[in-house]
Amino acid sequence: MAKTKTYSVHCVIGLLLISWPMIFAYLKYVKRQSSEDLSYNKPNLVGIVINDKKPELNAENWFSGIYQSESNDYDNDHWSLKEIMVRLNNQLYYNFFNQIRVNNFVSGKNNYVFAESYIFSAFGDDLIEEEKVVSLLEKAKVVQDTLKKKGVDLLLVFAPGKGIGSKEFIEDKYKHPVKRTNHDLFASHSKRLGLNNLDLYNYFEQLKPTSPYPLFPKFGHHWSYYGECLAMDTIIKHIEKLHQCDMPGVRWSQIDVVDTARSRDSDVLKSMNLYSNPELDMKLAYPVVQFEDDSVKNSTKVLVVSDSYWYGAVYMGIGAACFAGGQFWYYCNKVVPSPVPGEKVEVWELDFKKEIESNPVIMLLYSDGNLPAFGNNFIPDAYELYTSPKTFYARIERNRQIQTYAKQIREAPALLKKATLKSKEQGITLDSAIKSDAMRLSGFIR
Description:
Layout: H1 9-28, H2 59-64, H3 66-77, H4 82-97, E1 105-107, E2 113-115, H5 116-122, H6 130-149, E3 153-159, H7 162-165, H8 182-193, E4 197-199, H9 200-207, H10 225-243, E5 250-251, E6 255-258, H11 267-272, E7 284-287, E8 290-291, E9 302-306, H12 311-316, H13 318-321, E10 328-330, E11 334-336, H14 352-357, E12 361-367, H15 378-387, H16 389-411, H17 413-426, H18 430-441
Parallel strand pairs: 3-4, 3-12, 9-10, 9-12
Antiparallel strand pairs: 1-2, 5-8, 6-7, 10-11
């Protein structure tokens, strides 16, 4: 008699489980309507560069292998399960290994998140050579004195980062006796050289013991919104005293206290791309800010060169309401707001001398984690501009082609993604990777 085939229900269930990703991916698949359809299977993920441009098939790309490589990358970005799989993977690492799948960020006590570089800065583990700090600040002094003769005041602001601001929540493995920090060097030598400076370290240190609300949020990288409001009020009052002017003040009579993060108070949590977010477990304060509506007072234009800590002020509207529409130069590179509506403009595209001399006040504000790159190239450029204009303009013209390519890389998702991967593989900053690729494209290196 012929044997009758039988199938185990366990085998069927196992087969379905193994096939589930393929079946689910097929069910979620949405056909791309056209090459201009940028929403095609685009994952809703924060901080991940997605290549929206489908690779072009031609003989050159095919035989060089570029088409195959870029097609794999494109298909991976637009896989219908990309978002859910990234979130599940990140959730696994967070729940079981207490790891945050955000570059340079770690989890501390009580679920506080920190940029590891800001932990290093709090304990002096990123200490710069003192000679370099002195050299930079001596150049800043020359720039300050030169600009003062032109009616422009230069102000250096040292901002406390989350590492120093929430030090008690840092894991014990990072902690050790602190000998000296970059903040110590910048603060002491700025005072010795007579540089105009505002040390928000001391201000936040005095506030912390008595502050009714957190100055740093648990899942955010920057000051809390409440901390930002206090910092803005202090900065404006300091500028008024320095420049002997009257500016619109920051006022509030009402504070909303809630248990749901607003503004940038959970910016790292969003970048963690988890499947299920943890509880905030803290009350955050949100002053209902009002600005004095006085066009006479709002006439002191302030140019701000800063890191991401100043974006909070941008979102608050400080530039338009209090700084007479002054620009924000993000890392002395991106110009905010853009002077050309609808286009991204970078600092190298501007008339550097004209721009800095058209602002009665120039403020350089950097948090401690970025003190090794304080001001980026603003101070060296301004120093060379006023001490050796001939070499300054020759260098600017020589570097223009490299900066043109660098801007193209930053604006093209495919090129930016390659630079991002290069920075991770080689352990260098993204800016360094972009500059390297720009120099290669411009023919300066092979």
